[in-house]
# Entry
Amino acid sequence: MKIKEIYETMEYGPAPENADVAIDFLESHNRKFKLFINGKWIAPSTGEYFESINPSTKEKLANISEANEADVNKAVAAAGKALPEWIKIGAHQRARYLYALARQIQKHSRLFAVLESLDNGKPIRETRDIDIPIVVRHFYHHAGWAQLRDTELKDYKELGVIGQIIPWNFPLMMLSWKIAPAIAMGNTIVLKPAEATSLTALLFAEICQQIGLPNGVVNIITGHGKTGADIVNHKDVNKIAFTGSTEVGKIIRRATAGTGKKLSLELGGKSPFIVFEDADLDSVVEGIVDAIWFNQGQVCCAGSRLLVQESIADKLYKKIRARMGTLRIGNALDKSIDIGAIVDNGQLKVIEEMVQLGVDEGSTLWQSSSTCPKDGYFYPPSLFTDVSPSATIAQEEIFGPVLVAMSFRTHNEAVKLANNTRYGLACSIWTENINLALDIAPQIKAGVAWINCTNVFDAAAGFGGYRESGFGREGGKEGLMEYLKPRIDDNFSDQPLAISTNNSDSSVSQSNPSLGIDRTTKMYIGGKQARPDGGYSTVINSAKGEYIGEVSKGNRKDIRNAVEAAHSNGKWSNMTGHARAQVLYYMAENLMIRREEFASRIVQMTNQTSADALQEVDMSIERIYTYAALADKYDGHVHHTIHRNVTLAMPETLGVMGIMCPDEFPLLGFISTVIPAITMGNNVIVIPSEKLPFSATDFYQILETSDVPAGTVNIVTGRKDELAQVLAMHDDVDAIWYFGNIEGCKEMEFLSADNMKRTWVNYGKYRNWLDKEQGEGKVFLKHASQIKNIWIPYGA
Ligand code: NAI
Ligand code: MG
# Structure
């Protein structure tokens, strides 16, 4: 091109980044990578390799090992062997290793950035300025947490060997989000990168060698989905951390059900990007570029659904189209391109099919005229307007540079549209009105809310989803918890605490003054006593085999009614912690008044001594006090990130919970599970102890006299496991707590996978509910809530 022509067109020339060092790295392995196990490079036992390509050019970069079960066994064994010493060297030594990793990645940051762009197709500008700096930051931040482990988190211990499976969209970044917190907390790792993008993980393995990380602390295994499944199913892996598709997330949830493996899942999304009419539209347009064209839109939290207030919709669409026209598409190593290549041909086909579907469904497609190079897997930035909220492209993740726009009129409509999705990963809210932004943020069901910004991440803030976007957090102190367990868990017993029965006193079972003539108790649904739909009841006998009375036999329909009642009660979750505390204190007070009555009911069912029964009642009263006390003290955090934001980490309610009470301790088991759940603002459906149900059914008299709003606590009696199944399969139930036998635990986790309910089960381990350390505390509140991180612009 002549200089004159350059001046006329003002075209950018190519500005390729030099790839020599990255190529040298590939050559140093003869472009054939082995597995990194126990600090050494080991050939795969299959002898099989697959290719990794450069999606910008379709050229082959290297051969990658296909690991099988035997290789996974070796890696898990190496991690297991490394564990005791890794624990023993202590917090400070581990901190030094993490710090060394951070330093060394920083030193080789350009190599990592180039290699990542080559392998994945993402623009070098992004890997250089975003991905790798975040990786480095993650290791530094967690070097700090490693150092503070024994002082700040002394009530917790490591989990052991962790299996980690990551996707291709942010290969090294996802690796750092997984490995840094896990090893900082004293665990050892087997990690599998995605098959399309293994290279930076393999370079990271070399960095581990360079800094002298003890052998076996980090093992990197490459391969496809089957290799991932082998890690998931390995019996000596104590936790699985997965990022990827919702589909595979559900497979993993089902595969680990009942095993006791801890699980965190960071899955798909269809995150709303909400623009109100008073927003600064030029900033909005740049926000949209970052939301959906960053990383070619292959971002789990991409702002892929643009919701714009009708009054400004056309104006904004026009601005977006103009900006789309300026985005340059090209080889990922070109420093002056905005959009790189799609990761591989398969993903490109998915995008093409989804876009065609959108057109077929009647939405209007606009694509920028920027030319896509022909030699790689490229796709132009695309905008859909005239989209109906139920259209497939409005509901399903496209995972490409495709924005789907819809308009709304009122604020309420914006919230409804935003929440009209099975996902809940992130949302982005744009308005110059701080009141409006902070009114909307808590109403969106998503784990991250960005106000006047989007796609910002930092190691100090938690990231993760609600609903089918998965559970668990990465980053922040909440992220560390995914790699720890309370020390107290080791004290649980394999058998429920036996209740000592009272052989001498046989007169007491007749003494319950609350027994009327009809001894059939009803259920309690929506603040009213309810007869069972099926019209059946079950006889309950005392521990001595004497008839006490009957309970209603609830069925599927009763559960559905209870779920509906729980949903129609918006009152409880909107109350302040202070207001909820008042209700809880009132409840405790009313229970105190009926202390003897509740005790004799326990004696009647269990044949304990009166003294023991009174102790159970008194502990129940005290427990309600504890949660009343905590109701206005279980605070969130303000995370200090590296950006000009404050990030509020707010505990929010889960929504509607199903609670299967422990079978032992008829009153205390009910109180210990139901009260923390409602303390956090949830509405609950409770299945009381099947054999000892009357303390729970008596309790609705307490609920009725304590200003508990109708629908907050719903009690359905009957066959525990039958009712539990219905709850676990119900799409409008957000969480399940199950205390019972191991088969029940397994079933709950398995059935909960459909809509990704949060589950908390006891895996056949039993708490002593009389012991305060085991029977109450913040861990219960943690399981009854989820954290939303709200990013608010802050500072000069
Ligand atoms: P994927 O979920 O299949 O792959 C993610 C990781 O899981 C990879 O390392 C893969 O090898 C592994 N894996 C696959 N099957 C497994 C199994 N049964 N057990 C254990 N590990 C398994 O995602 P894929 O196929 O790469 O992309 C499919 C779609 O998923 C994309 O089109 C996109 O919509 C979505 N996706 C979402 C991501 C996110 O960050 N939320 C990341 C990647 C993909
Ligand atoms: Mg590749």
Observations:
- The first helix runs from residue 3 to 9.
